Amino acid sequence: MDLDQLALQRVMSIPPYPPGRPIGAVARAFGLDPDTIVKLASNENPLGPGPLARQAIIDSAAGAALYPDFDTFALRESLSAHLGVSPDRIMPGGGSSDHIVLAARAFLEPGRSGLISQYSFASYQGAISAVGARTIVAPMRDHAVDLDRMLAAIDETVKVIYLATPNNPTGGAIGNAALDAFLDATPSNVVVVLDEAYREYLAPNARPATDRLPEARPNVIVLRTFSKIYGLAGVRVGYALADPRMIAILRRLQTPFSVSATAEAAAVAALAEPAFTDAVRRSNEIERTRLAAGIQALGISQLPSSANFIMLQVGDGQAMFQSLMRRGVIVRPLDNYGLADWVRVSVGRPSENDIFLEHFAEVLQQARLSGASSLLRA
Ligand SMILES: Cc1ncc(COP(=O)(O)O)c(C=O)c1O
Question: Where in the chain do CATH 3.40.640.10 domains reside?
Answer without folding.
Answer: 51-273
